[in-house]
Amino acid sequence: MIKHKKAQWPWHGLTALVLIGLAVSLYYATSVISYEWRWNRVPQYFAYQAEVAQRVAENGTIEAIVSKGDMASVTVRDESGGEQVFEVEQASVQLSRGDDVAEGDLIGVTHHWAAGPLAWGLWTTVWISVASGVLGLLIGLFAGLCRLSNNPTLRDLSTVYVELVRGTPLLVQIFIFYFFIGTVLNLSREFAGVAALALFTGAYVAEIVRAGVQSIAKGQGEAARSLGLSAGQSMRHVVLPQAFKRVLPPLAGQFISLVKDTSLVSVIAITELTKSGRESITTSFSTFEIWFCVAGLYLLINLPLSHMASRLERRLAQSD
């Protein structure tokens, strides 16, 4: 009996209609409040032409102005007989040969491309996420194994750590770490933010590791011990590799959540992506455009992470 594959295009069409409906609803909502879209203001918050003023360091006289296409080389001889040479844009030069100039006078300007606040905020979010993610993974792995330890002290301390961190809001932990621990130890706000995020992530990773290890049949460890491996060797070479395959999806989800949680460090004046977005809104008055860009940048980070985790999960599944 031949099974006929059901057509999928009606469902894809329904998906497209839903997305179109959401877009129309958004447009209608902005038209109701008479919002004027200004997407032309957004690019400058990613990259812009920065102006650099070239000023005289000492009193002197303009000795020569040599044109070089769009640029000009301006030579200033100071009172001590030394020369200062400035490479500036031709159109910005408002002086003539023989003019006297004083310290701080403007010779001309140059322009160069510079990263905007959203680009810098994206970079800050990425490096904070990577640093706190790596530290959180190490802390979580250690704490998760301590929770499985036969040593009562290690087990109790790791349990207190996990329950304390998971039972309190991350925002409160950031405040405590920065204003109390950071003040006592004289830590920078960046260090305090990374440490708070790492400890928070480590508590959840510890529970993921503990659940993953306990999901492996006890016979695996017993078989490894019967072959002459020590407890540490059987855990490292037999149990953990199998547990890793099972904990990969929740670990990926935890790190994706970590990227979004970095927005909370803005409360201690770290200019990450969300804070950069708020600052950009105050100068551009393009509220919706900036927030859509910020959301898109978070997706730009998280979608590749999710895709790589899915590919790695499929590859590990094929190795079974």
From TrEMBL:
<feature type="transmembrane region" description="Helical">
    <location>
        <begin position="126"/>
        <end position="148"/>
    </location>
</feature>
<feature type="transmembrane region" description="Helical">
    <location>
        <begin position="288"/>
        <end position="305"/>
    </location>
</feature>
<dbReference type="Pfam" id="PF00528">
    <property type="entry name" value="BPD_transp_1"/>
</dbReference>
<keyword id="KW-0813">Transport</keyword>
<comment type="function">
    <text>Part of the binding-protein-dependent transport system for glutamine; probably responsible for the translocation of the substrate across the membrane.</text>
</comment>
<dbReference type="InterPro" id="IPR035906">
    <property type="entry name" value="MetI-like_sf"/>
</dbReference>
<dbReference type="GO" id="GO:0022857">
    <property type="term" value="F:transmembrane transporter activity"/>
</dbReference>
<keyword id="KW-0812">Transmembrane</keyword>
<feature type="transmembrane region" description="Helical">
    <location>
        <begin position="12"/>
        <end position="30"/>
    </location>
</feature>
<dbReference type="InterPro" id="IPR000515">
    <property type="entry name" value="MetI-like"/>
</dbReference>
<dbReference type="InterPro" id="IPR010065">
    <property type="entry name" value="AA_ABC_transptr_permease_3TM"/>
</dbReference>
<dbReference type="GO" id="GO:0043190">
    <property type="term" value="C:ATP-binding cassette (ABC) transporter complex"/>
</dbReference>
<protein>
    <recommendedName>
        <fullName>Putative glutamine transport system permease protein GlnP</fullName>
    </recommendedName>
</protein>
<keyword id="KW-1003">Cell membrane</keyword>
<keyword id="KW-0472">Membrane</keyword>
<dbReference type="GO" id="GO:0006865">
    <property type="term" value="P:amino acid transport"/>
</dbReference>
<feature type="transmembrane region" description="Helical">
    <location>
        <begin position="160"/>
        <end position="181"/>
    </location>
</feature>
<comment type="similarity">
    <text>Belongs to the binding-protein-dependent transport system permease family. HisMQ subfamily.</text>
</comment>
<dbReference type="InterPro" id="IPR043429">
    <property type="entry name" value="ArtM/GltK/GlnP/TcyL/YhdX-like"/>
</dbReference>
<keyword id="KW-0029">Amino-acid transport</keyword>
<keyword id="KW-1133">Transmembrane helix</keyword>
<feature type="domain" description="ABC transmembrane type-1">
    <location>
        <begin position="122"/>
        <end position="309"/>
    </location>
</feature>
